[in-house]
Automatic annotation (TrEMBL):
This is Sigma factor-like helix-turn-helix DNA-binding protein. Residues 242-271 form the RNA polymerase sigma-70 region domain. InterPro entries: RNA_pol_sigma70_r4, RNA_pol_sigma_r3/r4-like, WH-like_DNA-bd_sf. GO terms for biological process: DNA-templated transcription initiation. The keyword Iron-sulfur does not apply. It holds the Pfam family Sigma70_r4. It comes from Flavobacterium flavipigmentatum. Keywords: DNA-binding. GO terms for molecular function: DNA binding; DNA-binding transcription factor activity. Transmembrane segments: none annotated. The keyword DNA-binding applies.
Length: 737
């Protein structure tokens, strides 16, 4: 006699759920034979008390499994009734399919890596509900154990995963309320992606990408709380947003300025990918805001901006709304414009590229036909160059230069878009003949104002004196001292006078008696270049005094000795030559002569006095010429002798009065930051560049600038030092004016 399997045995084998087990017991179906008889007679179990879709499906699958093993009144159950799940899937509405597809996608992504890879491979990377049910839920041969690359540890996880999805399909198939289905889809997506426990119903039901973006930002869903604060304060996300500096943001979030800068940079780079989540939603842009996604160009004008913000009760900026749309429509539209220029608050404009003012949302295929960046940079470059005579291009011909595929037929479609970009970015417009005009811009330049002021002054003057005279002559002219300083280059007809930010006119060297620009060293170099032999210091002094009457032989000599460039060579009997020239062997270099003379205290003190008179500081112990190092050692020797009572009172008083005046502390000395900044400003003004770490004599000044820049970036300079550093930065930025 054939052994009949009981319902208890089927349940113990985990072939039916607890609910289905109780359905069988309640309806007197105690064995597989009872189940088969009922199924053969009724073709379904849905009429049984408490039997739902899931239990019906389980019992049908059970019948299909055992129907070949039993005979009922000599009639084998041959007809295998179609699994009801197949019809359920076929009859799903579009929104039901979308809900289930999203659910499958999210649940699959939540699996462990190995399980996810196995399922995705089994489904051939097609996670749509139709393919999923055919290959897993409706397949008679499907067994979790047989999936390729599935190990024993993955089986329980995948069985639960499959069961959850099957239950969800049945639940959704019984729901016809489209509004509820949309909310269900959105709720599950948001909660599963961001782990947000509660989502307001208006967000779930509206599918508004703007309302959703605002909600997710406020929930810190895209970034952590600190990052979100930095993004909200440091990017132009909202209308009428207060423009605040990185320093102010740093103070509010209790971080360093540099850390805030780093966070803003990283978050802006990640913003597009973070916002891609909104692509899962279905906002009716045309119905809600009259945005035509079938057009080749989408513009967010004032009306659309107000509609979006009023409809969603938000306050997004035009720039950010365009950015959100670019993410949502990324498959069909391209965002033109630099995000850093447009979304960040920028305090300095780049001099090497165009600084974008707006975003432009352009059809992807159309945008790929032209290099917008090259096009806009070219227009910007032409406008920023000095234009001596006006000129123009036929706009369509000009655009053809920037086509990427040489598809000239596309120019008619590109023309109005490119014209709009040029209008908005540069405020220039085509003429009636559709020409783009580049008008003469060679109006009076900064250096011309400075030149006029110096002519009025009629003598070498400081930058401040020149600036004041410019403002006096042109009260409505907007400029500043740093721009005036940067404009006074030799090529513009100016010459520096000494190293104290005094300038004259080059033409004065021919017009004024005893006027010559440059430093004392420049004048000496010019003089020595005239001769084939070294010249005596007295001859040099006589020449220099014509142009620098307040100088003296001794100060000139010490000035030359303090030169760190190695330009000058000192010979026996107070002769001086240039290292670049070759002289007869009759002249002996001092460096090659054994020195036997020892200076007296008075002589050394006089050298010390002259050093201070020229340098306005005490000697350094290193990184300077040997003569200066010797002076440094001499001072320390005198201090040591003073402690032992070996220095006469009159010498002691003379020395200490100078040391006290310049803040001697019996340790290595350095210039005050204020003095160093003056030296740096003077260097940049004269050389039209920053000091170099690789050039002799500039190393110390370079180190100072490098350290100050790092301190500025770390916000560790005091207010006075910040002002000076910004002055240097502006001076350097304006060099090419």
């Amino acid at each position: 006699m054939q052994n009949i399997i009981t319902v208890d045995e089927i349940f113990k084998r985990n072939e039916i759920s607890v609910r289905t087990y109780h359905v069988c017991k309640y309806n007197q179906l105690h064995s597989i034979l009872d189940i088969l008889k009922y199924y053969y007679k009724n073709k379904s179990f849905e009429k049984l008390r408490n039997c739902g879709s899931k239990s019906n499906l389980e019992l049908v699958n059970t019948c299909n499994k055992y129907q070949g093993d039993y005979y009922i009144e000599n009639v084998e159950i041959e007809v295998k009734v179609e699994n009801p799940l197949k019809n359920i899937v076929l009859n799903l509405t579009r929104i039901q399919r979308e809900v289930i597809n999203n659910f499958i996608f999210v649940k699959t992504n939540s699996l462990s890596v190995r399980s996810r890879n196995a399922i995705v491979m089994h489904l051939n990377n097609n996670l749509k509900v139709k393919n999923y049910t055919e290959k897993i839920l409706l397949s008679e041969n499907f067994k979790v154990q047989k999936i390729k690359n599935v190990g024993a540890k993955c089986i329980p996880e995948l069985e639960v995963y499959i069961s959850i999805i099957q239950d969800f399909i049945l639940e959704v198939s019984q729901t016809t309320d489209e509004k509820y289905l949309i909310a269900l889809k959105n709720k599950y997506l948001i909660q599963q992606t961001f782990n947000i426990p509660f989502v307001p119903s208006e967000i779930l039901e509206s599918e508004s990408i703007f309302l959703l973006t605002d909600f997710l930002f406020n929930q810190n869903a895209f970034f952590d709380e600190t990052q979100t604060n930095v993004v909200k304060k440091g990017l132009k996300l909202y209308n009428c947003q207060k423009e605040i500096t990185l320093d102010e943001i740093a103070e509010q979030v209790d971080l360093s300025r540099e850390r805030v800068r780093q966070i803003r940079k990283v978050c802006l780079e990640e913003l597009f990918s973070k916002l891609l989540f909104i692509s899962n939603f279905n906002d009716d842009l045309f119905q809600n805001y009259n945005i035509d996604t079938q057009s080749s160009y989408i513009e967010i004008n004032t009306d659309i901006l107000e509609k979006i913000n009023n409809f969603n009760n938000t306050d997004f900026s035009r720039e950010f709304i365009t950015y959100i749309l670019s993410v949502y429509l990324h498959k069909s539209f391209t965002l033109i414009g630099n995000s850093e220029d447009i979304l960040q608050f920028n305090y300095f404009n780049s001099r090497n590229k165009h600084n974008w003012n707006n975003f432009y949302l352009i059809d992807k295929k159309l945008a790929s036909e032209i290099d917008f960046t090259f096009f806009i940079d070219d227009v910007s470059s032409r406008l920023s160059d000095r234009i001596e005579e006006s000129y123009s291009f036929n706009f369509k011909s000009y655009l053809s230069k920037f086509l990427t595929n040489n598809n000239v037929e596309i120019l008619d479609l590109l023309f109005p878009i490119c014209e709009r970009v040029v209008n908005d970015e540069f405020e220039i417009y085509l003429d009636l003949d559709e020409n783009l005009n580049f008008k003469k811009n060679s109006s009076k330049q900064v250096h011309q104002y400075a030149y006029e002021a110096l002519e009025e002054l009629g003598k070498p003057s400081t930058v401040k004196e020149i600036f004041d005279r410019v403002i006096e002559l042109h009260p409505n002219y907007n400029t500043e001292e740093a721009k005036i300083r940067a404009s006074m280059k030799r090529k513009n007809g100016f010459v520096p006078v000494g190293r104290i930010s005094v300038f004259g006119l080059k033409k004065w060297e021919n017009e004024l008696e005893n006027f010559k620009g440059g430093t004392i060293r420049d004048i000496v170099e010019e003089y020595l270049m005239l001769f084939s032999t070294p010249k005596h210091i007295s001859n040099i002094t006589e020449y220099v005094l014509k142009y620098r009457p307040k100088s003296s032989q001794y100060s000139i000599l010490q000035n030359l000795k303090l030169d760190e460039s190695g330009l000058y060579v000192f010979y026996k009997d107070s002769h001086i030559g240039l290292a670049s020239k070759k002289y007869e062997s009759d002249f002996k270099k001092l460096s090659e002569i054994i020195k036997t003379d020892v200076r007296t205290w008075a002589e050394t003190f006089e050298i010390f006095q002259n050093f201070i008179s020229i340098k306005q500081r005490l000697p350094f112990s290193s990184g300077v010429p040997e003569e200066e190092i010797k002076l440094y050692r001499w001072i320390n020797l005198q201090q040591s002798k003073q402690k032992k009572g070996k220095v006469e009172e009159n010498k002691k008083e003379k020395l200490n009065s100078l040391l006290t005046k310049y803040g001697f502390k019996n340790s290595k000395r350095r210039l005050t930051p204020q003095e160093k900044y003056e030296e740096l400003i003077s260097f940049v003004s004269i050389n039209n560049r920053l000091p170099s770490a690789n050039k002799d004599g500039e190393e110390n000044l370079y180190k100072f600038y490098y350290k100050q820049r790092k301190l500025f970036e770390a916000n560790e300079l005091d207010n006075l030092e910040k002002i000076k550093f910004i002055e240097v930065a502006k001076l350097f930025q304006n060099m090419k004016i």
